[in-house]
Structures are given as structure tokens and as C-alpha cells.
């Protein structure tokens, strides 16, 4: 990260701390040096990197395509890069990858032009860019350097002054001081923690990262988690999970790992849970005022956020708004065609039997907001 960016970040009340020991970091020409444990954290191509070794994992694009993406973005512009890399080989991702509506959960939290936000697992930046339009500062963290670099290129080309890309994730401790963020956004937190830290038990990785997030939040700050539902209707229909298997989330934990070893040669690192388990994990860390929403059709592409504690809102949606999916783009209609048809039938049954309140248990994803 250039000195100009790091100074601007400090002005917004966010400095860096060593993720290993939380010691103060002294910025040199090419690194941030910890004055306690003396680890030298690099500055790579103007980006602060809290990673000792490079890793690459992604269920979106292979590493060679990610490298090509950043190269084209730097030479011809980020929009051209997305078109050239995603338009034909990753059509669904191309449709949503720059869709700022992916961050519409921001309207459910008290964010304003004084807010500082951390985005964990920032991807290629749609959520980060959307938040930058309403917040004072947005720190975008990813353990994939190519993603962070792409976002930095986009930030510069669009002259967005309040986005601060950071390469991090080498440890489960964030490189920031305590009590510095008004909100933290973590879409697919369990995937981000579990896949990036295979040397740690999955639940331990999730809990340690969640505790680090809790400490980084100011008192009264909010966490948003977008995550799949263990018993979601898409899983019940046999949709492939992140490990490439079907019905994995419906199996007991040990059986999930066994099947994952057979399919992919590795243990499953992306377990999903039920609302009760998500609530228990968040409360165990110290979070309170936990609210569940249904981001429909799913948390990667939310067009609606239905509060799951209000059955009347769910009834209204099933009666009046479900058909709005028919007016989406052709690509969206094709992607969710089967899910939509089954959803319409299920909605009629649920309404006729007075079971609208039970729909919350089988929605594909949850958008969870919790307060420190």
C-alpha cells in the first residue's frame, strides 16, 4: 500500500496492527515492520500484504484466468477485462460480478457517510464499490492477491478515494486494531475461513475468525453474514455444493467429510448450518440482536431481503412478489428456472396449509445481521 493510501486510512481512524502479535507497524519504503515480533510485512505493487506465502483458491475462475484478468484490467480497463475473461466462459458470474445490488443489505444497517466498513473476502469488488458510495471508508480484504489487485486497479480507474484494498488472511487474526469498524461484511465467511486455513479444524477456524471480527468492531457495530442454509431447498433438490457434491449439507458432519474425500480427495471445508446453529455460534462470540433475512433468490444475487421473523411479510411476498422473477434477465431466468418453478408450487402449498412461517427453514440462503 502506498504511503498516500496508508496515511488516508489513518485519517479515518484505521491503522494496521501485526496479525501475529498486534504490535505496532512501522511503514518503510517497501513494507510494514512490526516493532514487537519484527515480522516484515510486504507492500506488493502498492498493496499492504499480510501474507507470508501466496495461495490461490477459487470456485469461480482458475488462477491463470485471474492473472489474465488483472493484466487486461491494467492495460485496457477493468470493464474490458471482465468482458474478455467472463463474458463467454462464466456467463452467470459475468452478470452479477459488478452488480451493486449485491450490497443492498446495507439498507438494513445504520450506515452513513461517517461509517467505516471492512469487507472480508472482497472478491472482485462489487460489494466494496457499492458500500463506498454510502460510507466514509471501506477496507477490502482478500487472501487472493489477484482479486485485491483487480480491485485496486478498478479503484484507481474510477477514482474512488475511500476504498482501501488489503491482501490478508494468512492468519485468523485481522491486521487491524480493536474497536475500529462500524460494520464488517462477510459473505461466505465459513468458506473463506475453512478453505484458506486447512491446517486448522473447520469450526475452530470459523470461531477464531469470528472472534477476530468481533474485536475489530466498535461497540454497537454490526456484522453482516451472507451464507447458505444447511436445509435450503436448492440442497434438497441436489444442487452441487462448493465441494462438488450433492446433498452434502444434509449429511452428518463426519459423513460429509468422508464423501468429500471420495469426491475431491480432501475434507469438506464449507459446512453449512441451520439457523439455530448460526445463532449459537454468534451468541457464543458475544453478538446480540441477531436477525435473519432471506436474500432471494440467494445471497450471491439478492433481489429481495425478506425478514424471517415476520410471517406477514413472507405471506405478502409469496402472494404478490414471487412472480417478479419472471421479469428478470434471460440469464437469471435460466439459472433459477427449476428453483423458481418448484418455489411457486411450494408457495401455493404453504399458503393453502397456513405454513408460510415454515418457509424460513428451507430458503436457499440467509442474510444474518448481528450487533456487538
Structure notes:
A hairpin with a 2-residue loop joins β10 (288-298) and β11. The protein has helices spanning 3-11, 63-76, 78-86, 91-96, 126-132, 145-158, 189-196, 202-216, 233-236, 253-264, 275-285, 311-321, 330-335, 337-352; strands spanning 25-27, 31-34, 40-44, 47-48, 116-120, 137-142, 163-167, 181-187, 217-228, 288-298, 301-307, 365-371. The strands form two sheets. Strands 7-6-5-8-9-12-10-11 form an eight-stranded mixed beta sheet, sandwiched between helices. It is of the alpha/beta class. The model has no long low-confidence stretch (mean pLDDT 81). The protein is built from 14 helices and twelve strands. α2 (63-76) runs antiparallel to α3 (78-86), α2 packs parallel to α6 (145-158) and α7 packs across α8. The two termini are 30 Å apart. It has two domains: 3-228, Rossmann fold; 289-371, no CATH class.
Q: Which homologous superfamily in CATH is the superfamily of the largest domain? A: Vaccinia Virus protein VP39
Task: Quickly name the level 1 CATH class of the largest domain.
Answer: Alpha Beta
| Major sheet details | 8 strands, mixed
Strand order of the largest sheet: 7-6-5-8-9-12-10-11
Helix content: 25-40%
Oligomeric organization of the protein chains: single chain
Structural class assignment: alpha/beta
The CATH architecture classification of the largest domain is 3-Layer(aba) Sandwich
Tell me the fraction of residues in β-strands, as a range: 15-25%
Domain module tally: 2
The number of helical elements comes to 14
State the low-pLDDT regions, or none: none
Amino acid at each position: 500500500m502506498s504511503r498516500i493510501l496508508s496515511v488516508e486510512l489513518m485519517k479515518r481512524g484505521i491503522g494496521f496492527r501485526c496479525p501475529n502479535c498486534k504490535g505496532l507497524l512501522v511503514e518503510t519504503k517497501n513494507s510494514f515492520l512490526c516493532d514487537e515480533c519484527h515480522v516484515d510485512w510486504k507492500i506488493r505493487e502498492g498493496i499492504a500484504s499480510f501474507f507470508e506465502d501466496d495461495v490461490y483458491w477459487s470456485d469461480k475462475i482458475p488462477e491463470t484466468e485471474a492473472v489474465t484478468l488483472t493484466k487486461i484490467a491494467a492495460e485496457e480497463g477493468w470493464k474490458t477485462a471482465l468482458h474478455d475473461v467472463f463474458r463467454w466462459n462464466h456467463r452467470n458470474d459475468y452478470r452479477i460480478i459488478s452488480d451493486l445490488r449485491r450490497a443492498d443489505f446495507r439498507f438494513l444497517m445504520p450506515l452513513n457517510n461517517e461509517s467505516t466498513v471492512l469487507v472480508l473476502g472482497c472478491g472482485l469488488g462489487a460489494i466494496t464499490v457499492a458500500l463506498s458510495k454510502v460510507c466514509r471508508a471501506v477496507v477490502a480484504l482478500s487472501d487472493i492477491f489477484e482479486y485485491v489487485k483487480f480491485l485496486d486497479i478498478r479503484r484507481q480507474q474510477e477514482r474512488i478515494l475511500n476504498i482501501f484494498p488489503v491482501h490478508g488472511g494468512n492468519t485468523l487474526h485481522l491486521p487491524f486494531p480493536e474497536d475500529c469498524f462500524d460494520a464488517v461484511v462477510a459473505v461466505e465467511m465459513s468458506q473463506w475461513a475453512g478453505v484458506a486455513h486447512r491446517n486448522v479444524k473447520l469450526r475452530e477456524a470459523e470461531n477464531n475468525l469470528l472472534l477476530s471480527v468481533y474485536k475489530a468492531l466498535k461497540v454497537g457495530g454490526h456484522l453482516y453474514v451472507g451464507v447458505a442454509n444447511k436445509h435450503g431447498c436448492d440442497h434438497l433438490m441436489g444442487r452441487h455444493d462448493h465441494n462438488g457434491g450433492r446433498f452434502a449439507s444434509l449429511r452428518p458432519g463426519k459423513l460429509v467429510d468422508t464423501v468429500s474425500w471420495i469426491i475431491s480427495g480432501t475434507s469438506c471445508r464449507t459446512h453449512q448450518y441451520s439457523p439455530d446453529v448460526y445463532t449459537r455460534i454468534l451468541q457464543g462470540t458475544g453478538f446480540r440482536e441477531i436477525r435473519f433475512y432471506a436474500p432471494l433468490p440467494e445471497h450471491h444475487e439478492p433481489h429481495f431481503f425478506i425478514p424471517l421473523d415476520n410471517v406477514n411479510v413472507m405471506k405478502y411476498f409469496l402472494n404478490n412478489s414471487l412472480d417478479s422473477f419472471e421479469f428478470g434477465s434471460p440469464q437469471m431466468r435460466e439459472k433459477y428456472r427449476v428453483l423458481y418453478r418448484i418455489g411457486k408450487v411450494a408457495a401455493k402449498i404453504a399458503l393453502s396449509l397456513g405454513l408460510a412461517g415454515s418457509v424460513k427453514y428451507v430458503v436457499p440462503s440467509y442474510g444474518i445481521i448481528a450487533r456487538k
